Amino acid sequence: MARLRAAGVLDTKPGRGSVILSSAPNTVHFAPTTHSLKFDENLFELRLTMESAGTALAAARRTEENLAAIQTAMNKMEIAAGSGLVDSEADVAFHRAVAQATHNPYMMSILEFISERFAAFVQTAWDNSKVIGAGPQPAIQEHQAILAAIRSGDQDRARLAALSHLYALKDRMLAGKSAIQEASLTVRVKK
Fold this sequence. Notes:
Blueprint: H1 2-6, E1 10-13, E2 17-20, H2 34-37, H3 41-61, H4 64-82, H5 88-100, H6 105-131, H7 137-152, H8 155-190
Antiparallel strand pairs: 1-2
Helix pairs in contact: 3-5, 3-6, 3-7, 3-8, 4-5, 4-7, 5-6, 6-8, 7-8
């Protein structure tokens, strides 16, 4: 809220609440802060807990419409990966569609909260997949396993697939960070 006020988007007054200003810009871009680029173990634990339980709920409650939305996001990730591109937006859309399949509005709200803060990590993990030589295929396979478990209605398998994916995501992030640091040290030494 403070950043939106500072950007000239909101005006907040006691007793009235927050109002979008008529002079507000159409778009506001916030660059990531230094803190947002550092891996946050607490945020990871929240996502780990929430998404593993949410994926199990999605397996129990999903509709054909939910499965179609999850499959659409999966298709976008596969197309991007096949052409050598990174599509973290499709990744986030995938997890958003899974949250919608829980049919729990609070689950969706929490995922939105987490996604805003975790988006940079998702992008970093996709980027790091190239740096560490794994490419996008492991992440694609992890998402396929989640989709298959949800489609089958197997809650335990869905929970385990989500846990496996999230731990692998963390490993890719941290391994990539190390690889990037080693590469930058190598460059400095050569100069």
